[in-house]
């Protein structure tokens, strides 16, 4: 799936919402940190939620564990009026 | 750029290192949170560094700000012997 194909839809009208997509892929060796993607998932969502007000039912998360590659896809629709948390200090 | 094309190279030999790739794309409306990708960049790197020991010169970060879409690409090579930080509590 090419992330950019998602955004290549030419839309002349100003979009009524914004979209944030995160794609994470972890290529493991035979013996490796197998659950790194699962560990990162919650914390990456938490980082995003610190900066943008998120509506839980507009968040789509897909995880896939292949033989050598684990992937995480997060697709968040951000309504236009979602407030951006101005000066959020990094934890 | 398709993230998965990156991983589709069939390699029979066990890979001598692991790779973590993060792709972030923010489709903005005409007026929107323009620097969301820049804000998320440092914190996502910090989340990853909490879980895996990272060698700074093996981290490749690319940011691109298009008219409607900003993207962040992070490509991290994780040496096999990199220690995984066992039970790291989310902050």
Topology:
Two copies of one chain form a homodimer.
Chain A: H1 3-7, E1 17-27, H2 36-51, E2 59-65, E3 69-79
**Beta-strand percent range of chain A:** 25-35%
Compressed to H and E, one letter per element, the order of chain A equals HEHEE
Low-pLDDT ranges of chain A: 1-12
Proportion of helical residues of chain A: 10-25%
Question: How would you name the oligomeric state of the polypeptide chains in this document?
Answer: homodimer
Estimated radius of gyration of chain A: 15 Å
What structural category arises from helix and sheet content of chain A?
alpha+beta
Fold and architecture overview:
The structure is a homodimer of 91-residue chains. With 91 residues, chain A is an alpha+beta fold. The first copy, chain A, has a domain at 17-69. Chain A is built from 2 helices and 3 strands, in the order H-E-H-E-E. Chain A has helices at 3-7, 36-51; strands at 17-27, 59-65, 69-79. A 3-stranded antiparallel beta sheet of chain A has the order 1-3-2, covered by helices on one side. Strand 1 of chain A pairs antiparallel with strand 1 (17-27) of chain B, so a sheet runs across the interface. Chains A, B: Keywords: Cell cycle, Cell division.
